[in-house]
Model the fold of this input.
Amino acid sequence: LLIFDNIENGSLKEHLNDPLKTPLNWRMRLQIANEVVAALEYLFLFNDPPAYHVSISSSNIMLDENFAAKIRKHFFSH
Done:
């Protein structure tokens, strides 16, 4: 649920497109999707005023050292 600018494993886009990055199996991909949905839900439902992500894409989803998904913060609007 936390939002970071940069984290250790880079972006989801890099892992989906770069053959030199760690490949993501389907279990990891589903975990990442669930984490992104939970983060967006939190930002929309539990912030006052709600925060909206204006450009969600695989390049804006960062992966930490455990491949937990985090969303870059500079794409938000209130």
